[in-house]
Each structure stands twice: as C-alpha cells, then as structure tokens.
Amino acid sequence: MCDNIRGNPFAGLFSTDNDAVSFSSQHAIGNEANDADYVEQSLDAIEDKSENATKPTNFDDKVDQLVAHVFGLTLRRDNNSCEQSSLVYIDADSIEHAVFERLMLPDPKPKTQDVDSHVVETQVITYLYECYCRLKHYQINGDLEKIIRNACQIVLQNVNTALQEPDLFQYQEVHSQFVALFTNATCKSELLLFVNGIVEELIAANRESDVEDIITKSFSPVLDIIHKEAAQSNLFTFRQQWFALLNAFSTIDPLAKLIIHHSTPKNNQGCAYSDTLLGALFSISCLPKTPKDPYDLFDKPLQQSNTVMEGTVWTTMDSLSEALYKVFHSLLRCSTNVRHLTLQWLGNCLHANANRGKLWNSHMEMGLLGVLCVSDGFMLNVGNVLLRLCQPFCAKLNDAKVPKIDPTYCSVEANNETESLQRGIHMKGLSSETCLIPTPEGENRPMSDSFGFITECFFLTHRALDLGYRVILDKFLKANQDLARIQRAYNDARTGGSSEVLELISQRMEAEMIKYLSLKASLLVPEMLCHLSKFHAMTAFWLIQVNLYVITEEGNKPSFVPTHYTPVTFPLSETVPITLRCIPEFVVENTIGFLCFLRRLSPNTFEEQGANFLNPILTEIIVLMESQHRLYNPHLRARLAESLEALLPTVDENVAPGTPNLGTFHREQLFLTHPHRQQIIVNLLHVFVSIEMTGQSVQFEQKFNYRRPMYIVMDYLWKLSEHRNNFITLAQDAENNMEAVQPPLFLRFINLLMNDAVFLLDEALSNMTQLRQMLHARESGEWNKLPPNEREQQAAYLQHIGMIARFDNILGRKTIQTIKMLTTEIKSIFCHPTMVDRIASMLNYLLLQLVGPNKKNLKVNDQKEYAFNPANLVLNICEIYINLSKSDSFTLAVSQDGRSYSPELFKLADNVLVRIGGVGILGDLDQFAKSVEEAANQKREEDEILTGVPDEFLDPIMSTVMADPVILPSSKITIDRQTIARHLLSDQTDPFNRSPLTMDMIKSNVELQQKIQEWISQKKLEKTSKANI
C-alpha cells in the first residue's frame, strides 16, 4: 500500500504519507464496488464537450476530474483521451509540485486549441484565484472534503510565494495582478475568503516574530500601487476597486494594521499626510490638491450653465465619501488594536494640521498654509467620513436619551501610547484650546478616567470641521467678495477702458468664477448638508444637556456624561457646570458658521430638516446668549445673534435666482411655537449691551458689525405681537427700576442705541462731506496734476472713505429705524428725566445736519453707491418726534437744546418733507413745533426769574440748576441725580475720580435741595411782587 501511495501523484494533496495511507484504506472498498457517486462540477465548471465522457467510477478518477477542472492539469499521459488533450500535462510526482511547475510555464499549452481560458491563463495570481474559486464552488461529498481542503492550501501557499518572491515570475506584475482581482471579481465574498486564507496560511507557515515583516513584504507593494494611482487621479478618475481592496484588507487584522502603518507619514509636518496612501485618497476632491494647482472643474463658467457640472461633482463627492467611510468603518470594527491605530492616525493628522485653523492662515492661498498643511479637499473629506461615522448617534434624538459624549475630553492629554489606548484619548493639543468659559486661577478642570468611541468621534468631527469646512467657508466668502470687486472693475472698464484691459479683467473674472463655483460645490454636497444638519442638531441638544447637568466638583471621575435628560426651564440655574471649562469654542463656532452659510446659499435645508433641526438649534442660541457665565467670549455671543438672524423666515436677496424655493413654513413656526421663544428678546438685548465693553482688543467699528443682524432680528420680531409685548414689558420693568444697583437692561439698551445713532450718523455725514470734496477734485481735473503714485493713493483713499461712509450710513439708518420702531409703542422711558435730554438733543442735532445750512455739503453723485438716503433719515427722525410728541417733558427737552434747536429747525424740515413725499406727517409735525416753541417761551420766562444762581446750586457737569442734588461717596461732589444716572448707564465709575460707583451708593443732599427750592420760591415771589407793583 505504501508503495502505491508513493507512486500516486495525488499523495501530494496530503500533508503526510500516513494521512494518504489512511485515506486510501478508507476508500478502497468503495472504489472496488464501483461507487457511482458523481461529483457535479461547479457553476464555473467547464462544459464537458466529449460525447463519450463517462462518470468517474473510482476515487482516483474523481481526483483526476477535480484536478483537471480546478487546475486545468493532468499528470497522466493518455493520448487517446479527448479530455486529457484539453489539459496541460505536467510530469510531476505530486500535485504540489505540478502546480508550481505549471506556474513557471511561460506559455502553458494543451494539445487541442479549443480549451477553457483558465487552462491557458498565464498570469499567476489570476490563475491561482480562479483555482481557489473553483475549489470553493466544487460540490463536496465526504470522500473529497479533505482533498479539496489540501488543494486550497496548495493554492494559498503558491499565492504567498508569488507575493513574497515576485521575481520568480519573470515578466509578470504579480502585485498588479492582485489589485486587478478587485476589478474583475464577480463574487466579493470569495475574494474576501481568498485574501483571508492567504493571510492565515502566511501566519501558519511562519514564526510569529516574522509575520509582520512578511505581511509588509507581501502586501506593501499592493498598497504602493493604489497609492501611486490615487495620487495621479482626480474626482472623475478614481476607481472603486481601490476601495474594494482596502475594504477587504480592513477586515483582516494584520492587513488593517498594514494600511495604517503604510499611511503613517515620514515626518510630523501636516502636509506629509498627503503623501500617504490614505492621504492620497482624502486629497481627491473638486478642489486643488496643492496651492499651486488651479481650480479647473468648471469650464467657461461665464458662458454656460454650471448646474450639470455641479450635480456631477456632488454625485462623485458623495460616492467618494461613502467609499472612504466604509474603509474607516471597517478599520474601526476590525479589532481593538486596529481601532486604536486608526483613531491615533486621525488624531495625529488633525493635530499636525492645526495651523489650518489659525487666524493668520484664514485667507492664505499660497505660502505657509500650502507648504505646511494638507489641502482643503483633504480636510473636507476627513470631515465627511467622520460625519458619517457620527450619524448613528445623531439620527434619533429624543428626550429620554442623551448622547454618551463626555464634555471633559478636551481637557485631557495622553502622556504615552499606552495611556492613549487605555483611556481612549487620541486627540492632541485640544487642552490648550479656548473653551466656553475660562478656568479661574488656582482652580482645575474636571477630567474623566476614560472616554468612549462616541466621545472621540464627536470631538474628532468638530475638530475636522473647524480645520476643514470652516476654513473653506472663509475662503468662499472671500472669493465672493473678490468676484464682486472684479465685477465692478469689469463694469467700469466696459464704460471707459481699453479692449486690452477689458480682456485681462474678463480672464481674471473667469478664473475667480471657477474658484467660486468649485468652493461652492464643495460646500453644498446635498448628502453632506443632511449629515451636517443632524450633527449640529445633536450638538445643540447635547450642549444644552451639559449646561443643565450641574457639576461643581473638580477632579477625576469615571465619567461626566449627563446621566439623564433634563428639561429646559427658565430662568436657568445660577450654578453653572464646570464641565463648560472643557468644551472648545469651535464646537459653537462650527454651528454658527453652518447656519449663516445655509441662510446665504441653501435656505431650503432649513425647511427640509424642519423642527428636528431648528428647535434644538434655537434653544442652544437662546441659552448661550443669556450671559457670559455660560459663554464667556462676547464676540462669540454676538455671532450667536447673527445665527439667530440666519433662522429668520426671510428671503435673502443674495440667493441665486432660479433656486427652487421650499418656502419658510418651519422657520415661521419656529418663532411662533418654540417652547422658549419668550426668552429671545431679553437674551438678545443682553448680547447687544454686553458687546459694548468686550474687555478685549477689537476694532471700535466691530461692535456695529455685530449689532447689524440684531436690528434685523428685532425688526422681524417686533411685527409679532407676542414678541412686541416682550419689548414693552422690558421697558416697563426698566422704568420701575431706574435706580437699581445695576441699570435696567432696557435702559442700557436704548442708551446705547442713541450713542450709536449719534456716532454713526455723525461719522457718515462727515465722510459724505469729505467724499464730496474728493469727488469734486477728481472731476475738476485736480488729480491729473498729481504724480501717478499720488493719484493712485488718492483713488485708494477715495474708495476707503466710500466704504466707511457706506458702512456708517447703513448702520446709522438701521439704528434710527429701530428707535422709530420702539417709540411707536414705548414712549415714557424715552421721556424719563434720565433719558429725555439725550434723545431730544440727538434728534435736534441730526435733523439740523440734514436740513440746515450745511446740507449742501452732503450732496454727491451716486448716493446709492454709498447707501446715503438723507430723505429717509429726515422722515424717520420726524416720525420719532411725532411718536414722543405727547410728552411734555420731551417737548420741553427739545426746546431747551441750546446747541441745535431753533424755531426755524422744523420749518426747514417741513420744506424737505414736502419734496420727499412726507406730506402725511406735516400736520402732526407742525403741531409739535408749536408746542415746542410754547415750551421754549415758558421756560425762557422762568429762566429770567432765576438770575444770579449761586454756583453751589448748579450741576458741575451740565451747569443747570439741580432738581435733585446727590452726594457722590468717593469724590464727595454734589451732582444732579439725573446727570449721574445718565453717566452710570455707560460707565459705572465716579466721573471725578474714576472710583467704582452704582446708584445705590449715592446719597441725597436734602439740605442743599431744600436751599435750592427755597431760593427758587423766593425768586418767584420777588417776580410776583414786582408784577403787582
């Protein structure tokens, strides 16, 4: 028997001779009995073309048939058989040797020509994979099971040999053949089994210490091929086969580790990640891969519609994102160690590219940003992948379940890789980020012992959005401004420029338009917008729960994740959780930027996402606007007001025409039905007042920029009776608490409104006068006498002054309109002794500038270009007069403004109103003018009585007789109560020595008040006595 076994070529299918002997003994009887069992060929089997073919009658025949079908080989010389002639004959003493010999044949040929292509396949990997598939498809009965298993092992051994020693197979690209399998394979499950089998066979055949090196040697060239192809491809040429291969690798632990190790950059610079395998895939997008590359996807954008190209970009971007997501999803699920390596790669990549988020890099196209960091498209794709990974815990927000996100994650840094793995900390550098509230000196931030995947995924995503989506958004806004500027230059050139200049500007405009469209397309991928909406809604919901889950103790705990849902109730608890010390500001900034972008370019998203998106977002805005104790940065709180404007159900004039409009239903309902809508006005005013004194270095004009959207929000909400009543209630509360320790909110608000109106319109009118002079100099030819460089300087300065004038005119007009709106319903607080002199003098001054003798200095051509509309200003100011005209104190205050008031003032205003169509209010204004004149005459008579006023009776600031003298505690100076009350609205210090001061600290000077009253009474008595004589 042993001799027979040694002479049998199929003995090579067994691992030892004893196995072969045992197997042969078990089947001897069955073979002699002419077992009729028939092994049917698989779906891939060759159709037997021989009419005389007979069923195998013994075990050796079955094995012959299997070897013929699977390997296309015969080890027997039988020239008379048709079957044998269609196979490749190999003279070998075992199948193992025969297969290897077959692989070494440069051109395997059977005797006949008409054969299965597998028989003559020359590519090693393709041949072996087909053999493997045929073995897997082969219908097995009991006697062939072990044979097939050993045949599979032979196949896998030979694949490993080919991958490890590709030079054995001359003129063959072994690793390219392996990659090609993922293009041509019809059955992905078999391909995955094949790859897994290769790795298992490799591990079994080698010492454990050598496995990693051999894996690298075998499969790194495969990844090199994909890396090279990906680096040379673009959005329309990338191949799905790469991702099929990477998906297969990412489910097999050693190969998954290889993907990460292969993608580890050679140095710590951020841009080095672009030069890796995963980096090459992430770099594919509709944006340039490097700063030197052009924006080139939109051809001739000024001459044709770009809708088709935009749709194509969105489709391919979404396909790419989905493919990348599947790879990372598989990597994260593969094993604990692979998950650790994957998160570590993502964390290191974001940390290495942290400079992308720096303020000084926000508008850099070339230079350091391009040299040191990955591309915009790279970071956008990273964000997209992470967004998709977040979707399972974004999808269903309900009151019963709070996402398991630990707010203290960003306060911790891992000291080494072991700690990183054990505690779940893979992000770096976040502990130095500015957080929602500062940590007081001498105190610490809370820290959890460890963090789960959901926490890491959440903060990784926000960081990626901060470094990707937000930066691209900034570039888009700048590109939009550049395009508008070039458009203006183009229009100017068409009216008076040369054809050469026009051509140059046209080329520049086309290049800028391509850039604009590319950036826009990258930001508006529909699937990404949907994911972003759900992610930001979840962030808002979670952030509010963190605010309500009060944690006050410092130190470490197993977890700081909110354990239960807490409903929002106002007023909020005065105790603020110290976990807010750990949440970076960019978590809020990302949401603000997204909302403002949607309003401008995709307002339909608000309606598509509906209340599930809008409600938590508005709750977040309301809560964080309330005070600096929950969001310390006043600039960020002011930007929350901008995001509140983005939620208004108004149509943005900048939205591209032709865009389908889904209406504004959900946004309208938001301000009518939101459970906390009653808090919007009060919290908005808190923000308005708080940005006056930011405590930080900021351009003075910046506060006006912040207030612009607030005026728009107020204007919309005033039209809704419920919100208008909230304004009125706040005004009444303020009037009832005029001398509170802290000046009432509404009082501070209207005080700042008047400050802004005077400053902005004063600046605007001054700039309009300067513009008139400069334009006259240019048009009269004076500039032509200047040297070219001075002429250019003058032109630039003219443009600068024009921009400032436009800004001041717009904001000044908005401020006056807001005062007019408020005074239609709220009157008495404006006429309170603390405020009445201020508003009267403000209105008089502005009206005099607009209708008085200096108005001719304000006339310029193209007033619309500078947003200057003096007629509208005059009308609004006159309507404010009329709104407050029923108040005697206001009428008197107008008459006593010695700087700007004269009886002719309203006559001049009448003349302007007649010309601009304001005839409807002439009657009311004339009546008010008469009342003012009467009040002036009456006051003049009273003043004539009070001649020779003792200095101690006069207010030291206003030089008027004090009605209610009070003593300041620090300087001991006596001043009129209303004068100091007005001063404290803007500055809570003693005006004479700058020491801290509030209204509760002052003391009435009763003795002096009595003296003043006695003196006035005496003067009136003397006047009466003289009259009677």
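That was protein one. Protein two is written in the same sequence-then-structure order:
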Amino acid sequence: MELAKTYEPKQIEGPAYQTWEQAGSFRGDPADPRPSYCIVIPPPNVTAALHLGHALNNTLQDILVRYRRMAGRAALWMPGTDHAGIATQTVVEKRILTEEKKRRTDFTREAFVQRVQAWKDEYEARILNQLQLMGCSCDWDRTRFTMDEICARAVRATFFKLFADGLIYRGKRLVNWDPATQTVLADDEVEHETVKGSFWYLKYPLEEAAHIPRLTGVSPVEPGDQGVSGESGVARRTGAYLPHWEKVGGTYAVTFRLADSLPKHVLEAWAREREIIVQRAKQQGRELTYQERKELHYLYSQRVDSFLNSGQGKCELRNPQVAGIVHDALFHFARDRYELIAWCIMPNHVHVVVAPLGENKLSEILHSWKSFTAKQANTILDRTGQFWQEEYYDHLIRDEEDFNHSVNYVLGNPVSANLKDWPWVGRTELHGPEGHATHGQDARATEYETVTHITVATTRPETMLGDTAVAMNPADPRAKYLVGKRVRLPLVGRLIPIVADTHVVLPDPESDDEKAKFSTGFLKVTPAHDPDDYAIGQRHGLAMVNVMAPDGTISDRHGWDDASGTDAEPFVGMDRFEAREAIVEWFRKEDLLEDVRPYDHQVGHSYRSHVPIEPYLSDQWYVAVKQPIVDCRLPIDDWVSTHADLVEQKDGVAYLKGTDVPVNSLAGLALAPLLDGRLQFTPERYAATYRTWLENLRDWPISRQLWWGHQIPVWSKEGKRLDAFLVSIAQCRATIQVMRENGETLVCRGFDDYEGWARLRNLVDESEFLKCYVCLEDPTEVVSALLPKENTSWEQASETVRKALSEAAAAQLKADESWSSFDRQTLGDHGLRLVEMPASKWIEGCGFVRDGDVLDTWFSSALWPFSTLGWPEPTPELKKFYPGDVLCTAREIITLWVSRMVMMGQYCAGDIPFSDVFIHAMIQDGLGRKMSKSLGNGIDPLDIIDSHGADAMRYTLAAMTSQTQDVRMPVEAMTLPDGRRVNTSPKFDIGRNFCNKLWNASRFVMMNIEGSPAWSEIHPTKDLADAWILSRLQQTVRDVTRALEEFRFNELADTLYHFTWDEFCDWYVEIAKSRINAGEPAPKAILAHCLDVILRMLHPIAPFITEALWQRLNEIAPVRGPGEEQAEPLLVAAAWPQADASLICPSADERFVLLTDLVRQIRNVRTQHNVPPSRKVDVEAEAAGAHAQLVADNAGLLCSQAQIARLNVQSGPIVPPKTAASVASGSIRMYVLDIIDRDAEIARLRKQREQLAKGIASIESKLNNERFVSKAPADVVAKERQRLADYQAQYEAAEASLQALG
C-alpha cells in the first residue's frame, strides 16, 4: 500500500470501514472474559436525517468506545433508532396532506401505520448510513428499533409490571395538550418561550350590588384644592405634594423626614405619577378603580418608606445624641397636648402614631417637635440650614384594624430596614377611659361605595367561557363583603360564586412579583383550562367546564352544556386565538373592558409542533412516580440503613431528606443513586437539573392520542355487574383493575393472586356500576377460553358462569387449587366450551375494547439501556453488558430521558443503567442562534464529510467540546465539487489542516524509517532530542488518557494537536531528518515508535486516517517500539499506549526548550533582516558551565535547525561587531554575525524612535489631562497607561540598539 502524496479522505474512509466490518471489529461478545464497557446510543428519531448535533454526540460516544476497546475492555456500542411517536406521525401526516390532500382519518389505523412504517424504513436506513460514514463503531448486527419485537416485549413487560404494582392508573386530570398533534404531553415535553402578550381587564357584573368601605389612604384632589370633604367634620388641606386630612379627636400615623432624605425631584416625580393616575380616570370619564386607589396609597406611604429605609441622605439620626433629642421632644408634651401611642426614630426619618388632645392640632404638634429639635441637632452636628423637610406624611386612622396595622408597622420598621437591636422604637400604654379602642374606633367616618362589577385580569380571555368561579384572597379587605356573592358571567350568563382562596395574589403595583403588579385581587377560575385554577376547583368543589375541542377550537361538545341560546354561541367553532380577539372586542363594545396592559410572559409550547400548549381536561393513563412501591424487589431497607443521613421518616415512610420523595417510589429510585454518589454528572452542574426535576416531579401521563407507537395493552368495559368471563380470564397472565362507584379500586394480579381473585369473584353477585380494566402481559398468549356453545348467548353463558362460581369456586380457592380444573369439569355441562385462542381475541370476544392510545415515546426510550439487551429475558448480553457505563447526551433531555432511564433501570433491571452522564455543549451558529431549517443556518454533517472528510469533522467537533453550556460555530456558504450550495464553517478547516499535516508528516517518516534498528539497540539514548521527544510522548499519553477519563474532549484534541504538530512534526521530525541524512540509525526507531503511539492516541478521534497510516506503517516497520513485538494488524484492535514514567525527564524537557527558544529567536532575526533561507550564518555563543556544555553537545541540532555555518562557544564575555544581532535564552547569549546593514539599520531605528517619541508625547498629554483621567472609564485609562509603558520600553530598546551600533 503506497500512500498518496496528498490526503484524500474519500479514498481511505470507505475501504477502512469495510475492513473493520469484515473483521468484526465492533462486535460486543458476551462471552468475552474481559471487563465489559457498554454505551447505548441515544436513539435518533426516524423523523429526519441526522444534523450536526447528532454528529457531535455520536463522535464523542465513538471516541469513548474506541478508547475503551483499545484499553482492553469488551466494548459494546448498541445502535438503534427511536420511533418518535408525535414527531414522526406529524411529518407523515403533513406529507400525506401536501401530496395527497388526505388526512389520517381518511385511512384505517393499520393502513396509516404502514405509511409511517415506510417513512421509518427510509429514514432509518439513511440514519444508519450517516452514522457509518461518520465512523461510528457500533455493533450493527444488534441494531434495535424502539418498536421492534425485542423492545416491544420489554415495553409490554414493564407496563404489566407497573400495572400490577398499582403504579399505572386511569385518571381525568388537567394535562398539557398539543392542539396541533391532538395529544397529551408530559411536563418535560413543554418548552417555555417568552411571548409578547397582554393582560385584559374584564368586568364581571355582580348578581346583586355590594356595599364595601372605600379604600382610604390619600384621596385624590386637584392641586391647590382645599376645603371640606363630603364626610362630616373631616377637613382637607393641601401640602406641597399631597393632601392632608384632619378631624377633631382623630388618631394619626405620621412620618416626618430629614431635609436631605427625600430629594425634591423624587417628590416631584411621585407627584407627577399621582397626577397621571388621576387625569387618566378623568379623561376616561370614570371614577378611580380600586387598583388605582391602591396605587395612589402606595405612592405616598409604602413607597416613600421603602425609599427612606434604603438609607438616603446623611442619616444624622444614627447619632445617639441627635436621636436622643428627638426622643425627648416626642415625650415632652405627651399626655398634655397629645397621646403618644407608638414611635420609631429611624436614621433619616421618624414614625409616630399620635392622638392630639383637646383643641391641639396635628400640624402645630409637628411644628413644635421640629422647631424644638432642629436647633439643638444643628448645634451638636456643627451645621446650619434646614434640618427637617417641610413636607410630612400623615394618615388619618379610620378603624381598629387600621389602628393595629399602623402601630405594628411603626414598631416593625427597624426590622424591615435590617436594623438589628435598634433602641429608638417603642409604644406607650394608653390612659383613656376606653383603653386602646379609644384611638382605633372610626377616627374617620367610613365611606362606603356601591360595587356593581368586579374586574378580573387575564392573559387568555377565550377561557372565560369556562369560568365557574371568581376567587379572592381572604386577606383582601373586600373579601368579607364579597365572598359568597355571585357574578353573572358575561356572554354565557352563568351564575358563578366568589370564593376565598389564598392562591390569589393581592394587588401590589410596586411589587417585584409580576403577578402582584397586574393583579386586581379577583381571579377568574377556569378549572378545565388552567392548572392553578384546576387546584382551586378541586379545593372548592367547582364544576369543570371544558370549552375547547382537541384541535383548540371553541366547542360545546366536550363538557360545555350552557352555550346554546347565549351570546357565547357565535364563538363556537372559532380557533382559540380567533375567539380571543372576538371576545375582547365583545367586551369592548359592551363597555366591560376596563383596561389592556402589555405583558411579556412565559407560555408553554409543544416541543414537537412548537404551538402553544393548552391546559386541557382529559382522561389519561398515568404512572404514579411518588407512590411507595409495596413490593419494590430492591434492597431498600438496606439502603435506608446504610444512608441514614440521606433519609427522614414520616408516618412510617422513608423519604429522601428535604423532599416529598419516598425512597421506594419510582422518583426515589432515580434520585437515590445521585445522592449516594453512584450516578455522576459531567459537568457537575447538571446534577442540580436532574435533582430538581425529580424532587418536583408530578405523575407522568403516558398515554398519547396517536396511531404510531406502542398501543396500550389495556382492555376496558363498563357495566352494572362484573362480567363472569372477566374472572375466568384470570387464568392467563393478566392484571385486572376494577373501579367501583365509591372510588375504590380492586386489583387482581393474575391467577396466582387468590385474594385478589376472591375480591373480584365477590363482585359477580353485586349490582353496581363498575369500570373494568384488564392488562395482558402478552396479548398473543394462547389461553383456554370459555365460549358459549351453539345457540347459547353471551348473556346466558355469563349467567351460567356466575352461578357456577357462586356455588363452587370459594371452596376450591380455600384449598389454593387451580380453578381452571373447576371450569373444565363443570362449565361444559352448562352451555360452555373451551377453545384455545389468543388472550386478546378472547377478551375482546367478552366485550372488552382495547385502548386506542399509544404510549409516550419516552416510555419505550426509558427502557432502552436494557430492552435492547433482551430484558425481561435473562440473555447473555444482559448479564454481560448491564449495567452499562456512560450516557452521552445533550442537556435538553436530562428530564425527558435521563431521569426516566435511571428510574426504569432500577425498577425493572434492578440497577442504574450507567454510572456516568456526560452532558455535551449545544452547537449554535456564530450569532449564538440555535441551528435550524427555518433560519437556514444548519450544517449537514454529510456535506462536511464530502468537503473535509469525516476525521476533520470529528476532530473539529471534539476540539469544540469544552464543558461549557454552548459553543458557537460560524456558518458560511460553500459550493461542493458537484455544484451544490451548502453550509459549512471555517472551523472545519482546522481539522482538515491537522489531518493534512499528519498525513504529510507520516508519509515523510515512513519514507525514512525502512531498516530501523531494534529498540534494544538504540535505547537508552544519549541524544537530547531523543530523550526529549520520548519524555514528551509519555506525558502526552498520560494527559490524553486523563482527558478521556474525565470527558475533557477539547483538552484531548488540543493535547494531541500540540504534541503531533508542534513537537513531533515541527521539531523532532526536522531534527531527525538531518541526523538520518548523516547516517544515524537511532532516529528511525524513535520516529517509528512515536508515530505508532501517535496513531494509537489519535485513533478514537480520527479513526479513518490513522487506520490507513497504520496499515502502511505495518508494512514498513511491522516490529517497532519497546516491546519489539509484531504490531496488531488493525489499529482498531491495537492496545492503548501506556505511559512509561521512567522515560519522563524534566531536565531533558527544560534543556531542549532552552535550545529551541534560541533557534526560534535566530529564525526571527534572520526574517527580520531578510536573510535568505539558503544562506547559512556564523554565530558566536557566550555561555558558561553546564550551558556551555549544552550548546557544545547540541551544536549539530542548533546548526541544522537555525541554518548556522559555524558555531563558536566561549565561556567569557564577547564583544560583538556592530553588524551582529543578538539573541538570548537563560544565561546563553548568541550573536548572529554580519547580518545587519549598519546604515540601513540605523536609519530604521531612528525612524522608529521618532515615531515612538510622538506616540509617547500624545499619550502623556492625554494622561496629564485631569478631565480625561477623571471622566474616562477606568479600563480605558488603564489601557492608555499600558500603551505608554509599552512605547517607553520599545523606545529604550531602540535607543540601546542605536548605542550598540555606535
């Protein structure tokens, strides 16, 4: 085999792969005695061809498998594909609709499934071919498909096991519904996207008007408006920024502030905000809403205090002397002019609850406090000017509740401001004849308002058609006046109650909680279309009205029975978003649309169809993930006792500490291995994603309303009496669940479950409505079925069975005898016959109907690590290769797949399916966008293989795989030789260049190593270059092995690149060339050995090129390296190199680097002075001691690599001629003679010095400008200082060079 002069990937990739397959190189043999290593491929969906993300994922898996195979493990990489129920059915339906104008329902189920199967066959073949072209070393003879018979058997066995354990149940719940594919989605199949939406404020009329107290606080007035309000005896006066209220005998909450605590512009801005609220209501010709009054109250009370508590101004009241003066002033006239109830002196303001006595006015009391304290405080602080702000805030307390709130607020203010052990706060006992109540009873007369409507805020107005209540928080002051009343639902006319529920968020316009900002305090409750509303509905026993069809249109046929004859009827049949616009318009025309406010929020979208999901009330099959498993069949007790620190007991159940996850639940089985360390994530941060998901996991809905997938193996029947034939079916492998009218579920786990069977038998004589579900472990199992004889109806036969069971079955059951013998002896005489037939046919003949749904795709995917190995059968493959070792995948399916594989691996196979999970980065384009067809920025891996070769692609992808979250790959267009325009990336040029370098260097080596001596003849070597390359080779083997063990793929690629290109090719090969030409044999053996090891290390990452080079190397030097053994015929089967620590020589590394540094500097000097490459130069070297010996011993290396004609080494100082250039490394200085044109060099240096002087002057001028230094960003100033230092250093160097030239 001759190597071509240029590297042509297409010429070597096909033959190499064919060679591997013919040799059975990828076969995982269960009889192999070596330790196993197993990876199961994340099965690609048969929806479409593989993309670049798949190429990355499978490249990394192949690197791991090839490495472990070479490292002596019996490796199995199990390949296969996934049926991808929703996605595949969707693309096939689209194709049929586009090409044939037909829908799925135009076909029978069987005919449609055949069409999908044809799609699957086409794309599965394409996918497997892609994987082979990438170089994937899978055991192709074991290729599995999630719906093939081997995997299907595992699916049936798992479902049956879960059903029998009571972990699968049927339930009507609110689910994530995809209207596009018309199927349910699990929580982890929902992707949340930010949507620019709105909050629509809809007014619902009350059945009867209500009278509730008007919200007080700051009432709105026009600027300058003064006088008396409509309330008797309450006077209103206007301050600078807000009105004040006064009433004889009133009690007030007062806040006054230091002069610098609230800047004027802040107060003015708040005044403007208040004015905007007031004017908006006036312009719209309406009164202020409750929400607007709430905002006004907040603008002038809580918001001010929040600003103050943040520590604005100098906070002079932190000074104990000043605070003491204020304290004395507050108490000076107490009980004489006013009753001081509560007080708090904060660092920049004062809170007081005070009740003026007699004719004393609040404004006069405030004036006395301020004037009394201002002068003394200024004296203590040695200052002049205004001490207190003229404006103050006062609130006229209206009732006992308001009084208690105000006092508590004052007393709690230091805690709110994080002031610990604050001494300046307190309250006094009241001395009025009526005690506390004197100051809390209606200091201001209560003003009531008549409420005829309440306003709800919603982002989905179309769902209001299904409202069955309005909820309020019981802490809302209005709740006690409104809860229990009813509103009449617009459009529909339905009367719905107002209920109290703490889930409702109280309105708070300044809250960090977005819901509080937009809340009105009233929540429309639509239990059938919102998960939170569903929970409220369950708590309050509300009706659940489903107003949508499965396709997302408004419908009155799925649980909405009061649409007919109402204003809502025209909306029936509209798409949900069309209905949204129409309903909003109706509310607008009816003057029931109070407001519309923009609102960006997260909306769940289907991860397959990408349309917004719809919370939808639906009957589905669920897996109970947090239900304790009665018969777990795992040593849970041992685990609990061993890991007591991870467990806490609650009501006799062991829970994982700090969670609601029972240890012996499915979620517990998945979470425990992470907590005890058996399961490791790399990067480690993704363990938190896994853990959080499992801790918050809800029951898993596993049924999907599709035709493509594993049909659920459950048959059902409803009736007034338990069919006796159902009892007889217990003789086959079946589990029966019977749901009674009272909600009780009875379970019979097959013929051997005598107690369960007896419970069912007792129901045969009962008369009540029952729902029966039968799960068959194997629907094809042949059973002895009971059938009526001729002229006997099913009803008659069933009655015969029922009577016979009543008479004789109980006695036989007590004896634990098989009741099948009873039916053979007895039932034949009663119009029955026994017929051998499949269990499914028998039970369908009994009137049971199979569930038409299929299982969630992720159900079969969760079984992938062991179903592919033949479980539930105890196959040799399962025994050898389970549990596996590593899962390599992307972060997006940690929840979808990883958690479920661990869960099911523990539950079904008794152990975790892998011990390591490597989460690789996601590839984005150069702009940080996800690669997709719609953006046109995707890269087809086959296009890169065509243009660059598979190895170049693999190397580039591995080099990019750092342990970051995302990596970017710039995308550019290119034209292939066949004229196609495709996407590529310049990053792939890195891989291609590296492969070219490896090919060319290897070709040169193999042209020069024929006749290389045996290793024993040249080792140990005395040559420094030999010692250095062997030392570096061992270190590289060590570092590469560590990188592979720790999943540091970018370090793997970088280390191999640096050693192969920079050290082996650029240095050792070049040095060896001159030595071989001089007749030295040793470099030949070392070149052969180094190339051997390089090819072994590079093989996992670049298998094709390394295999081709290995074949040629075997022809030229079949025996090479320290072992002096015949090399393995195929590199794929060669042993992984082991680092020999005895060959690592730090001193050789250090000395060689010293020499190569000198060579680089001499090369640079030659280039700088335009010395032709062919011209050799003379060099004088100044060195002493060991360094002098180093130069002398390696003169040949220096001369050959730096084009030196004569090298003279002196131990003393050298006075170089002015035409010599100098270089230095360590204590060695070398002078390259006669390469400088003195006059030209002087001219150049003078020009350089002049330019540097100008630059220095310019920068110094800028840095001397105080305005620049003070106003420019610190990093800009720092950069200028660094530029100045660099220019000055260059100037000094130029000056020194000129001095040297005389």
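Confidence is low (pLDDT under 50) at residues 216-242, 430-446, 808-824. Keep this in mind for the problem set.
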